[in-house]
Amino acid sequence: MPRAAVIDDAPLGSLTQPTSRSARRCEVCGSDRVTELAMTLTDGTPVDFVSCRACEHRTWVAAEVGALPIAQVLERARKIR
């Protein structure tokens, strides 16, 4: 199955410019120094990958279900044969 091109007009953020950061905070330590990447897993699930620069906590958040356990992320990201 060919992949569809996705064009996103969301503004790009910046790790170095505090005014460009989102309002998201780390769910573990509360830091606002997080990196967020929007991505789509292999099974088509759109997720936001969030990585905390302060405590290194990482999570994948799906809009319809919330935080996904790593085992579920890996299962949804598996190549379809």
Task: Explain what the structure shows.
By secondary structure, this protein is mostly beta strands. The protein has a domain at 33-81. Helices cover 9% and strands 27% of the residues. The protein has one helix and four strands; from the N terminus they run ββββα. It has a four-stranded antiparallel β-sheet. The N and C termini lie close together (10 Å).
Brief characterization of the structure:
With 81 residues, the protein is mainly beta. It contains one helix and four strands; from the N terminus they run E-E-E-E-H.
What are the salient characteristics of this protein?
81 residues; mainly beta; 1 helix
Mean pLDDT: 84
What's the SSE pattern?
EEEEH
Spans of at least 5 consecutive residues whose pLDDT stays below 50 are none
How are strands sequenced across the largest beta sheet? Answer: 1-2-3-4
> What is the makeup of the main sheet?
4 strands, antiparallel
Cα end-to-end separation? 10 Å
Record the SSE blueprint.
Elements lengths: L33 E7 L5 E7 L5 E5 L3 E3 L1 H7 L5
Antiparallel strand pairs: 1-2, 2-3, 3-4
